[in-house]
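User: I've been trying to design a sequence by hand for this structure and keep getting stuck. Would you show me what you'd pick, starting by listing the structure so we're on the same page?

Assistant: Good idea, let's start from the same input. This is the structure you sent:
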């Protein structure tokens, strides 16, 4: 019964784990090749080092793993965020490494208007926190621009409405940058158009616009999503050219409207905001010219009246010249005495200068300097005589001191040499005695060591009756096993060598062994010169 219980039940085939996983993968992918799943994003992990994105889609009762490959993630219009309800389109597959199934997403879109509005509100708050919507960033629109740049579709009714409105109000040079205003690539094209207009040179071949209009007709919230993308909002905020947004109808609001310098309710309204009405402008200019001419005429009349009044108040030529004439006559009468006083004053000044020059003439100064030089010479001669006498006295004193020191030094040197000679004799005598004692001790020690060496040498051992036995090669025979029968040996005793032949094997004594006939002794081989041999 035990052997029957170990037999396999039925004829079911055996699967390997890899084969079973592959079969499950093919079955699931064939059955769910293309699905649309609605759920909330949970456990979102942004692009990892490989660029792929991993998260889960869940509802109230279940959860499924999701993955977005790197290439698909770069093309997504709606970026996944934690807690966002989306509709994911892709295929169901399995992952054998975890025995789980997952959805590989090809496209992603918000699930309904509520989710889309929540996404836009979160993006608006984040960009506003960065200061992209601040009022101080906004600039005034030029009153009458020379060139107007328009970013819109070239085939729609929007560009025709803008051109017609500009033609009716004030014709201007218009540059159109064609873009898609709906679809996956619309946001990138609009951002590139704004950046491209800003990159034009001010004095280049293509004139740089003075104002930009980003326009699109009305549509649903999904249709206007391209103008809510972050790349478009940042391009509008970074634009150095004043920008007017005209996206949708008056009730439609997009994020580019917050970043633009001016928002127009419609594309036609944008054309009205960037240029004035030419007829009204001409009328205003004519009215200002008429008012200017009247004001100039009234000013001229008033200035003419003021001039006539001033002319009546001016005195005649005689009255004007009488005062200067009298002052001239008075000055002429005072001129001669003043000249005489001035000449006398200058004469006195000249005499004072001549006296000072005489006192400071070169001859006087030279005589003074000569007297001073003679006095200095006498002082120097007396000082030289005193210095020579003092130096001679000092030299005599130093010479006497040197003679005394020389005498003292010679006496001290003689006494030192005498003491050193006596000390050298004492040291020599002590050295001879020490050398003789050391030599006697070394001689006595050497004699004792030589006696010890002689008592321990091989000759002393051989003299006590021992012998050294060597084989034909001169090697010492140290055991019975080396004494083979018939082997020629050399025996060394205290007074010489003799040869011997081994008669018996190991364990044979002289009394029991058979003695062979003695053979002639072969010529004695020269033994190798070695160091002291073994005594035993």
């Amino acid at each position: 019964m035990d052997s029957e219980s170990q037999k396999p039940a039925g004829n079911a085939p055996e699967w390997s784990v890899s084969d079973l996983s592959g079969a499950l993968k093919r079955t699931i992918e064939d059955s769910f090749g293309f699905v649309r799943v609605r759920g909330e994003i949970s456990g979102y992990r942004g692009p990892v080092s490989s660029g792929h994105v991993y998260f889960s889609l869940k509802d109230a009762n279940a959860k499924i793993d999701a993955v977005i490959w790197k290439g698909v993630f770069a093309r997504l219009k709606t970026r996944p965020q934690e807690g966002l309800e989306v509709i994911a389109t892709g295929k169901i597959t399995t992952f054998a490494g975890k025995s789980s199934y997952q959805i590989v997403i090809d496209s992603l879109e918000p699930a309904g208007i509520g989710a889309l509005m929540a996404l836009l509100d979160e993006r608006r708050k984040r960009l506003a926190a960065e200061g992209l919507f601040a009022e101080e960033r906004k600039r005034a629109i030029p009153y009458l621009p020379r060139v107007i740049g328009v970013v819109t579709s070239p085939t729609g009714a929007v560009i025709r409405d803008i051109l017609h409105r500009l033609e009716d109000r004030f014709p201007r040079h218009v540059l159109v940058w064609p873009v898609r205003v709906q679809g996956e690539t619309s946001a990138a094209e609009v951002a590139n158009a704004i950046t491209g207009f800003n990159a034009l040179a001010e004095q280049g071949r293509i004139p740089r616009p003075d104002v930009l209009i980003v326009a699109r007709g009305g549509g649903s919230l999904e249709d206007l999503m391209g103008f809510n993308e972050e790349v478009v909002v940042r391009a509008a905020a970074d634009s150095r050219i004043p920008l007017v947004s005209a996206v949708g109808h008056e009730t439609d609001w997009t994020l580019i409207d917050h970043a633009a310098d001016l928002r127009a309710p419609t594309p036609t309204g944008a054309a009205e905001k960037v240029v004035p009405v030419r007829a009204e402008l001409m009328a205003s200019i004519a009215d200002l010219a008429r008012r200017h001419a009247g004001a100039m005429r009234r000013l001229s009349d008033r200035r003419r009246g003021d001039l006539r009044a001033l002319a009546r108040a001016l005195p005649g030529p005689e009255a004007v010249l009488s005062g200067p004439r009298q002052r001239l006559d008075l000055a002429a009468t005072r001129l001669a005495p003043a000249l005489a006083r001035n000449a006398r004053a200058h004469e006195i000044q000249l005499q004072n200068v001549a006296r000072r020059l005489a006192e400071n003439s070169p001859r006087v100064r030279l005589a003074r300097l000569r007297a001073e030089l003679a006095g200095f010479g006498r002082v120097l001669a007396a000082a030289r005589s005193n210095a020579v006498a003092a130096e001679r006295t000092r030299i005599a004193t130093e010479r006497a001191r040197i003679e005394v020191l020389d005498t003292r030094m010679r006496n001290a040197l003689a006494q030192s040499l005498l003491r050193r000679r006596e000390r050298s004799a004492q040291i020599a005598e002590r050295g001879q005695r020490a050398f003789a004692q050391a030599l006697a001790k070394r001689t006595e020690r050497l004699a004792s060591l030589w006696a010890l060496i002689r008592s321990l040498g091989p000759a002393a051992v051989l003299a006590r009756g021992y012998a050294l036995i060597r084989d034909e090669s001169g090697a010492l025979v140290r055991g019975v096993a080396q004494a083979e029968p018939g082997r020629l040996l050399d025996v060394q005793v205290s007074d010489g060598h003799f040869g011997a032949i081994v008669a018996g094997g190991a364990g044979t004594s002289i009394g029991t062994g058979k003695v062979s006939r003695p053979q002639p002794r072969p010529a004695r081989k020269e033994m190798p010169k070695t160091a002291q041999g073994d005594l035993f």
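That's my pick for every position. To get oriented when you compare it with your attempt: Confidence is low (pLDDT under 50) at residues 511-521, 523-536. The radius of gyration is 67 Å.
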